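Kindly review this record before class:
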Amino acid sequence: MSFPVLRFFCGAFKNTSRARVTSSRAAITNYTTCQSCKMSGPSTYPLTEHFPLAMSMRPNYQISSYHSSPVKLMENKTTLYNANKKKFRLTVDTVNEHLRKMEYAVRGVVPTKAGEIEAAIKNGDKSYPFDRVLFCNIGDCHAMGQKPITFIRQLLAACTNPTDLLESGIYPSDVVERAKDILSHCKGYSIGSYSDSRGITVIREHVAEFISEQDGHPCTSENVFLVNGASDGIKQMLYITQGNQTRTGVMIPQPQYPLYTAALAELDAEPIFYFLNEEKGWGIDIDNLRPSIKAARSVSEPRVMVVINPGNPTGSYLSRDNIEDIIKFCHEQGLVLFTDQVYQENIHEKGVEFYSFRKVLMDMPASYHDLQLVSFNSTSKGFLGECGIRGGYMHMMNMDKEVMKQIYKHSSIGLCPNTPGQIATDALVRRPQPGDPSYKLYEQEFTEITGSLERKAVLVHKRLNQIPGVSCNEVLGAMYAFPKVVIPEEAWADCRAEDPDMSLDTYYCLEFLRQKGVCIVPGSGFGQKEGTWHFRTTILPSEEDLKLMLDAFEDFHFNFLRKYGKNV
């Protein structure tokens, strides 16, 4: 007599088991170990003995039958798939439901429309009252006209094509020496080979040296992982911190970079929002954090707090005192602290020093030194602006060895970070020094880029605050302004006529795009207090383009207010 063979999936079992159906009973007949009762071996265990346990650990219990006549076991709790069932087809209704919930405002409705308009203009459409689209929606430095740092591009070129370039005499000697050093740590003397899953060892050592010097406290490369841009590292660590039995809660700021809400939606984690204080320069009020986390504990297990400093989209940075308060709060609440510090080179206020969370933590009393801290940095921001190369690193504090093994294992799934991004990271943390052949040009380019950003930060703040119905905090850090705007309620009718689900600030930004050809991002994509409207703009366009953009915005805003009955 032949029996149908079933494939048994259960959270309680370490391995997928094979089961045979005998009459109305199923039994596990493969070598397997139940992680709850620890029974293992080749003996046959009735499936019904483990079924309640399986259901308690994974409600979506499934058995797949390869027999033409499916056998029903435990009605309403077991799903049996017949081999003759209709074939699966991927549609918008069958894709992962968490993907459908994800939103990413900086590439959302307004930028999508901007791309369509730009394509139409390039194809000869002259129906728009402008001849180009100015994209102010994303922090893409080079797309906005910023020139690459020569030293970095020479290093990348030399590592990519060493045969032709290393001995050609074209590049300065410090570039050649650096390239040879990196290549000597690559298998086959080629960046086309896989590196360690954590990144090229010598570059991780250079990152550790950079962190040690920056913070004034020793750092080991064993706690450094190179990543394909900070975003990948952040998503990886959010995944790793997810709970097994309960929904994980992650504290994120409002407003925030949409990466976080999108990543949490993908993981089906619980976002725990805390509002930044606009009236206090977008600082963090510790007293407002406690009610948020207390309420979240009823629906989730809070595990992580995310802080973005300098701030995106706010253009702010935190004081040292505020950083200390955040560290104390996370220590008190037992939270892992994620610090997104990709804009640490973008401090626009003269005489102000950037303080990393790690430095502040290590300067505090030893009783706080056991806080688990993960810090992120990137080659995409700062003065490099190498967004497309996808380089960066993450540094972990107080993770035990077994946890580090799990992070290493997860990194190994992707084999290794891309090697050009790793080389750019090396250039980020190990810069030409006085006396090096590349130093003079490097300093000249660095000064030009940072000086221009400082001037544009002042310009944007000053001009926006001169416009009635607009208020903007100083742009002290990062690459963005996040002004508050008055949008007349009378505009709701036109907004809903276009799309019943559209937010009013999205309609406002779309109108600005359609009338003036400038792409900005509505504040609703980042989070804002109810009853307020904002938008985010970069300060990255050239100084000339930025002045034109601000003139265009002032004219648009006046006309928008007049259209909907507001006197200005």
Summary: The longest strand covers residues 301-308.
